[in-house]
């Protein structure tokens, strides 16, 4: 059974840092593109970042580029999102999701991030 | 930055047809994907590659794309089809992805 379990969400002050993790199981993790998607409270979905199967290619949404870094450890089956210089507008539920043929077929339950003073 | 534009809401009577549009400049060259999200749940894929239905999605769901507009149609909407629907597509470079703002579908 495919499972994606996010962790690391927390409350942090503006300007702070946080590292999110996503533990994957039930599939060959190193064969799939992985993405982060977030959803601010009461708002729509926002794509955040993606990473290719071997970790050599990454892309970011404009507002997080230069502040967030996506990475993966295929040996451990984990996806990470290092978030720096956090802003109030980064407050959201962060989902990790697997991409198959360009569509997201499995999602985690999300981990909440709150940026507030 | 690239945007996909959706109507904020669509209302439909049970058994009638709901149509949700998604406008984006790159859609003539990029596939559209559609996700439905119910309150408190993770999104679920309901259409991919413009018009292909994943297994488990009822036949009343169909998709199309023409020019800069992709469309998701629910023919004979049911109460269980209520939710927020998001279109999703790459930008013209293919490097980045974008969700539309979402359309709240109400069946009443």
Which terms summarize this structure?
heterodimer, A: 117 residues, mainly beta, four-stranded antiparallel beta sheet, 11 strands, 0% helix, B: 108 residues, six-stranded mixed beta sheet, three-stranded antiparallel beta sheet, 9 strands, 45% strand, globular
Molecular structure report:
The complex is a heterodimer of chains A (117) and B (108). Chain A is mainly beta and 117 residues long. In chain A, 0% of the residues lie in helices and 54% in strands. In chain A, the strands form two sheets. In chain A, strands 2, 4, 5, 6, 9, 10 and 11 form a seven-stranded mixed beta sheet that branches. Chain A has a four-stranded antiparallel beta sheet with strand order 1-3-8-7, with no helix packed on it. In chain A, strand 9 and strand 10 form a beta hairpin. The radius of gyration of chain A is 13 Å and the shape is globular. The mean pLDDT of chain A is 97. In chain B, a hairpin with a 2-residue loop joins strand 5 and strand 6. Chain B has strands at residues 9-12, 17-23, 33-37, 44-47, 61-66, 69-75, 83-90, 97-99, 103-107. Chain B starts with 8 loop residues before the first strand and ends with a strand. In chain B, strands 1, 3, 4, 7, 8 and 9 form a six-stranded mixed beta sheet that branches. In chain B, strands 2-6-5 form a three-stranded antiparallel beta sheet, with no helix packed on it. Helix content of chain B is 0%, strand content 45%. Chain B contains no helices and nine strands. Chain B is mainly beta and 108 residues long. The chains are: A mainly beta (117), B mainly beta (108). The A-B interface holds A 35, 37, 44-47, 50, 59-62, 95, 101-105, 107-110 and B 1, 31, 33, 35, 37, 42-43, 45, 48-49, 54, 84, 86, 88, 90, 95-102.
């Amino acid at each position: 059974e495919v499972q994606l379990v996010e962790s690391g969400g927390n409350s942090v002050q503006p300007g702070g840092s946080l590292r999110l993790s996503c533990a994957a199981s039930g599939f060959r993790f190193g064969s799939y593109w992985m993405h982060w998607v977030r959803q601010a409270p009461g708002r729509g979905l926002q794509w955040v970042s993606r990473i290719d199967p071997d970790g050599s290619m990454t892309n970011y949404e404009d507002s997080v580029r230069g502040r967030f870094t996506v990475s993966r450890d295929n040996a451990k089956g984990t996806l990470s999102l290092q978030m720096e210089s956090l802003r109030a507008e980064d407050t959201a539920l962060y989902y990790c999701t697997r991409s198959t043929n360009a569509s997201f077929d499995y999602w985690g339950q999300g981990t909440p991030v709150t940026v507030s003073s | 930055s690239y945007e996909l534009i959706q109507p904020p809401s669509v209302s439909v009577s049970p058994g009638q047809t709901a149509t949700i549009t998604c406008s984006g400049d790159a859609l003539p060259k990029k596939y559209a994907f559609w996700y439905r999200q119910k309150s408190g749940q993770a999104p679920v894929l309901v259409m991919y590659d413009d018009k292909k239905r994943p297994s488990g999605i009822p036949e009343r769901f169909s998709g199309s794309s023409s020019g800069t507009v992709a469309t998701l149609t629910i023919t004979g909407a049911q109460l269980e089809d209520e939710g927020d629907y998001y279109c999703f597509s790459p930008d013209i470079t293919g490097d980045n992805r974008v969700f539309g703002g979402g359309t709240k579908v109400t069946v009443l």
